[in-house]
Amino acid sequence: MNTGLLLRNIGRWLLLLALQIVVLDNVYLGGYANLVIYVLFILMLPTGMNKNLLLLLAFGSGLLVDVFNNMLGFHAVACTAVAFMRAVFADRMLTKDEPVVIDTPSIFSVGNQQYVGYLTLMLGVYNLLYFSFEVFDFGDLWRILLLSVLSTLADIVLVLLYQFVFLRGNERPNTKSSLS
User: Fold this and answer.
1) Which of 16, 36, 52, 122 falls between 20 and 30 A from 163, CA-CA?
2) Which one is the CATH code of 3-178: 3.10.350, 1.10.3470, 1.10.150, 1.10.1760?
3) How far is CA 142 from CA 125, 128, 160, in A?
4) Tell me: the pLDDT tens digits for 94-123?
């Protein structure tokens, strides 16, 4: 990973964590949705990244959000599961098993359908796990599913809005580089 990409990812991590902790954790949507943006950091890391480092970064990010929200590890577990799923499915979903590394997976570098499908799966897994732990009563399965679906839809809109607003022009085109 080159220095510019490393600095961009560190900046993105700090920005997304700050947005999550300072702004989004204080937004109340009537109890019907929970806005999550910090997971985007994990989803936008290069596709050829070391899997162990990816899991460690996801766990640490989730744990930081848990600490600031006085939670019991719900974010850490859900974010680590997303990183595991990303490690398994990102190549298949984003690159169609072609030997390329996408430095910054986004709607601009991948394409609309592929990226929205990727976001839907990853954020859906995150929200389903998070609300399963938060509600922790399978008698409320419909409530867990409703909260997960509504939160996933809200998160997809938030992520796409973030990408249209914050991605600089040089991150939009030609972010693919081949592996050798």
Assistant:
1) 52
2) 1.10.1760
3) 16, 11, 27
4) 877 676 788 888 888 888 888 899 999 999
